[in-house]
Amino acid sequence: MSGRVFDGQIARAIAPEDRAREERLKATARALVTAIRDGLVRDGAVRLHGFGTFRLRPVAARRGRHPRTGEPIDIPAGWRVMFRPAKALRDRIEPDQAPALLIGEPHASREAMLDASAAAAAHAIGRGAGRIPAEGLAAPARPASEPEPGRAAAAAMPEAKLSVQGPIPAGSGSDLEADCRVTRSPAALTRAPAANEPPPVEEAVVEVPDAPVEQTATARPRRHGNRSALLLLVLLLVLAGLAWLFRPGTAPAPPVVEDPGTTPRDQAPASTASGDRNPGPSVDADAASERNSAPANEAVDTVTKKAPETATGGDADRPGEAVVATDTTPTDAPDEPPASVDESATARLTVPTADTASGGAAGARLPLPSAGDVPASENPATTPGKTTSASMEASAADSAAAAVDVAADAGGTLAASGGAENAGESIGSGTAADGAADTASSDGSPYFSGREYTVRTGDTLWDLADRNYVNPYYWPHIWNHNGDIANPDRLEVRQGLWLPTLEGEPRSLTEADRRSIAEGYLRLYRFFLDQGDANPQYALVGVRYFDASVLPERMRGTAAGKPGDTLAAVFHARLEAEFPLE
Amino acid sequence: MNKSDIITHIAGQLGYSKAETHRLLDAWIEAISHHLAIGDRVVFRGLGSFATREVPGHRGHRPADGQSLEVPPRRQVTFRPADGLRVAVRERPR
């Protein structure tokens, strides 16, 4: 008992009274045929997920016989098209064998569809049709008084795949569109799938009206639940936003009024209650550093206390990162694989380029910021082992937290965080800072006066330069003043460093600064050379960029780069015919 | 070639969006599966016809150890490629 259905009929049935859609379906069918054919010819296999796989099987040449005359003929080798139905299709045509579907199983709608099929079939039989009509989906001439939810669903189902929540009551066609993307309802699964063979008439008659009632009854609460969950989420977001809004206003006040020991603790859960949505890690840090001045210990306490809490929930939080960085970066932290170096390098790239962009005037006056592009492009190569950018971003919070254990170092770390703040300021203010920079450098006091520093986990020369000199590309300056560092990629924890003075502003270095940095880069060049690096020349770009006079006479040239030059251009212009430095 | 390749192909050919093409293709798959499930033979012009066939239960044996067992009756999807497809494929170089 099998009807014969043609693709055109199916297209009409899927989109009844929608000529445009029907045409689209037909066009799709034509294109599908050619696509499958071409795919078979080209690849030998076409997989249609949820339907099946067409595959070509080679057939050897053989001898056959002419069917009429019986004389032997040679049949050449060729290909045979095989079709293997997908599991979904196999289960569908044999629902009794289908394994029980789990709640939330993605093919829930197929089961619903099956129900609908069965219902439709049953209905067709109930109407007295000898067999299921070929246009089974088309819902022909239906009595208007009697709604047929099952059939409506059956007609609507094919396109609303994966999303329809069981049969939808007739007349809610537009609703279907709206709802179809919401859920994959397991509701339909509560019913055992009916046999694919048309059930007996009595059973069918009972079943048809049953289906929609039961299913809508189970489907409704679920839709409701979704909506309320969404509402709850929105509410939570709003609450979190409010909590964050009121934080800066209220946070600094309480320590003055009440016991400072308790209030921060009260705030901690409030800020972390929103989990990974906690938007104010930097605010926390600021507040903590503000409080640092009066009750230093308590503030630090809250910082350290807060950090682990946010670390559990936060994926992008700064405190979270800080904790991760300090936890997971032992002494070998500078040995990060190159990948992470590149990563942080790209993160870094934004800083100097932003500088040059905002400081166009400075670029005209000074060669320094204008050529910011050059070290930016050479960055991945010349950067000594950096840890992840996480640790760098977290440096502020890090230094604040570190104030606990190193009480003696407290002044130093505070200065460090101050330096970080300065960095942020001068980056943010851009050109405005330039005037101030000039005056600052003209009055004689250095931008950064040298001091001792003790290496902590996660530190790199790059980071230190970034923190203290604003521009991480100045890191060879530090290396140049710490002759005991053989490998700039390797710092030891608790190792003492001398952070050298930076006389000029980061944007307007003095001759001495530039010379020192250039010497650092020269040292880097030699370092690479000693390591057998295939192309240590790029370190020379740094030398040229800062002070080419440290080079031997024959290797000097004009400035290594001009604004807009790429590293490759610099190489080609200056280093193409060059020679190792002895 | 898989479904997404086909969708890309069709979408490019007809100028539909991929999402739209995806929906249309899924509609076809659903409809064909539906008709197969209710026992129809589906004739897809240019591609071939799909049908189901009853495989009666029989005594078989497990290939691994030869133990005889009962194979339950089942239904199977059969596909008969259209002439156009057969010819197109036959010319394919080996």
Q: Kindly report how far apart the N and C termini of chain B lie.
A: 18 Å
DSSP helix count of chain A? 25
Q: pLDDT below 50 for ≥5 consecutive residues: which ranges of chain B? A: none
Shape category of chain B: elongated
Q: Please tell me the overall pLDDT of chain A.
A: 58
Strand content of chain A: 5-15%
What series of H and E elements makes up the topology of chain B?
HHEEEEEH
Count of the separate structural domains of chain B: 2
Give the chain pair forming the largest contact, with residue counts. Answer: A-B, 77 and 56 residues
- Report Rg of chain B: 19 Å
Question: Largest sheet of chain B, order of strands side by side?
Answer: 1-2-5
Gyration radius over CA of chain A:
37 Å
Features:
heterodimer; A: 582 residues; mainly alpha; three-stranded antiparallel sheet; two-stranded antiparallel ribbon; 25 helices; elongated; B: 94 residues; alpha+beta; HU Protein, Chain A; 2 domains; 5 strands; 30% strand
Please characterize this protein's 3D structure.
The complex is a heterodimer of chains A (582) and B (94). By secondary structure, chain A is mainly alpha-helical. Chain A has helices at residues 7-14, 19-43, 87-93, 108-126, 149-156, 173-179, 201-250, 253-257, 263-272, 281-293, 296-313, 318-328, 338-358, 360-365, 367-370, 373-382, 389-393, 395-402, 410-429, 431-442, 461-469, 475-480, 511-530, 537-547, 567-575, and strands at residues 4-6, 45-48, 52-59, 62-65, 72-75, 78-85, 451-454, 496-499. In chain A, the strands form three sheets. A three-stranded antiparallel beta sheet of chain A has the order 2-3-6. Chain A has a two-stranded antiparallel sheet with strand order 4-5. In chain A, strands 7-8 form a two-stranded antiparallel ribbon. In chain A, helix 4 packs across helix 5, helix 4 (108-126) packs antiparallel against helix 7 and helix 16 (373-382) packs antiparallel against helix 24 (537-547). The radius of gyration of chain A is 37 Å and the shape is elongated. The model of chain A is unreliable at 98-110, 124-222 and 250-442 (pLDDT under 50). Chain B has 94 residues and is α+β, with helices and mostly antiparallel strands. Chain B folds into two domains: 1-38; 41-94, Irregular (HU Protein, Chain A), CATH 4.10.520. Chain B has three helices and five strands. Chain B has helices spanning 3-14, 18-37, 83-90; strands at residues 41-44, 48-55, 58-61, 68-71, 74-81. In chain B, helix 1 crosses helix 2. Chain B is elongated. The chains are: A mainly alpha (582), B alpha+beta (94). Strand 1 of chain A pairs parallel with strand 1 of chain B.
